[in-house]
Amino acid sequence: xxxxxxxxxxxxxxxxxxxICLSLLYPVLVYFGNRYLPPQVLALVLVLLVLGxxxxxxxxxxxxxxxxxxxxxAVLAFGLNDSLPLKMYPVLVNGSxxxxxxxxxxxxxxxxxxxxxxxxxxxxxTAVAYTRRVTQAWCVFFVCNAxxxxxxxxxxxxxxxxxxxxxxxxxLVGAMFAGEWMVRKRxxxxxxx
Length: 193
Fold this sequence. Notes:
Blueprint: H1 7-10, H2 13-36, H3 39-52, H4 64-80, H5 84-87, H6 89-106, H7 111-119, H8 125-155, H9 158-192
């Protein structure tokens, strides 16, 4: 089951860009906003973010469970006037991405194959097998990232949570994408040779 607002509900590209910026800057907003704003105000930002997302970033509609999880975190932050539920949002995001990638392993094509076919629609079977392993690697990444995000949220100071979720995790995602792209080029070059 998925939840995706219609075009009329979200408008044009400007609201989408705002949601993307909010998503990327979420750790910054929570960390610095927590110094000047009560968690209840930041919970409203989370509601805007959760209700404004239409896809997971991989063209897959955001699941109803993911939306409900985000809204539950916002309600807890608002009701308890506590920032811990806000800091759990990266855990939810990683868990949601894990479910998407795992389900694509069960019901192919995998997410990595879909992305690879955007550039090369006629993927050879060896490349399809490779994209399956890439999807499995991303699943491991999302498990590890979710566990570290959880650990930084409940066991470490806000500063550590911010550095990991607002800087280090983004660097790791970028390194993972870059590494996979370089290996995929080598795999495809070997096939075409």
